[in-house]
Design brief:
Shape: globular
Number of helices: 7
Helix content: 40-55%
Strand content: 15-25%
Oligomer: single chain
Largest sheet: 5 strands, antiparallel
């Protein structure tokens, strides 16, 4: 009986491995394993948070500890795709670099062809379409990243989009990608996000969410505020470490004040 069980287990493993290795073949229960493994790569990455405010979009990312001699300017998790599009990502940095370059080339090509800036919706659909195309043909593998894209729509309203390794894209009011605690942080955002958030409130909310997973405070996070300035809008401004440190200290003081006081004996 044990031998039969072992044989059945081995057959199941071999069958799984065959679907496991083929990017274009569905397993019998409807899975594309390589896409699911790409999503696991995102979960193993650092956390990225996006929060929509009434007049801006805040992107905040967890910054992993750097080597002592490493230049932090060469490790960016928040980058500009176009004048109206700022992107934060979670997952494999090398994959992100390739996808970001593709997005930048498409944005410049759109400007050259249409003599206008590509909309946020167009760029989100392009990034998602590129990610999806890498799940549908042999000889490639899915991009191991999820993205949060921030900017302004044609009406001048702030918008936030998410894309994932499967190639889906969707619009959000607040969202978290990457990290093992993304579900918990998403629930935190659902409880605390409101439609009337201003810039300061949105920054506070994003930093509070990151503090749930970041131990060392401001030095291990990066925050960017995308505001509507200039002709095309979508101008990203990175917050200085000193300003972030003040916000973190204020949040920690607030937590201490909210702690229940032990009754005197």
């Amino acid at each position: 009986l044990l031998d039969n069980n072992n044989k059945n287990k081995t057959r199941h493993q071999l069958a799984t491995m065959s679907y496991d290795r083929a990017i274009t073949v569905f397993s019998p229960d409807g899975h594309l394993f390589q896409v699911e493994y790409a999503m696991e790569a995102v979960r193993r990455g650092s956390t990225a948070v996006g929060v929509l405010a009434s007049d801006c979009v805040v992107l905040a990312v967890e910054r992993r500890a750097l080597a002592k001699l490493q230049d932090p300017r060469t490790i960016r998790k928040i980058v500009s795709i176009d004048q109206n599009t700022t992107l934060a990502f979670a997952g494999l940095t090398a994959d992100a670099r390739v996808l970001i370059n593709k997005g930048r080339v498409e944005a410049q090509s759109y400007r050259l062809t249409c003599e206008d800036a590509p909309s946020m919706d167009y760029m989100a659909r392009y990034v998602a379409r590129t990610q999806q195309s890498y799940t549908q043909r042999g000889g490639v593998r899915p991009f191991g990243i999820a993205t949060l894209m921030a900017g302004f729509d044609s009406d001048g309203k702030p918008v936030l989009y998410q894309t994932d390794p499967a190639g889906t894209h969707s619009s959000w009011k607040a969202q978290v990608v990457g990290g093992r605690n993304s579900k918990t942080l998403r629930e935190f955002l659902e409880q605390n996000w409101t439609a009337d958030l201003n810039q300061a409130d949105a920054v506070n909310l994003a930093v509070k969410a990151l503090l749930e997973v970041v131990d060392s405070g401001a030095k291990n996070m990066e925050v960017c505020v995308v505001t509507k300035e200039g002709f095309e809008g979508g101008v990203p401004t990175f917050m200085e470490d000193e300003a972030l440190d003040e916000i973190v200290k204020a949040i920690e003081r607030e937590k201490e004040e909210d702690l229940p006081v032990a009754p005197a004996e």
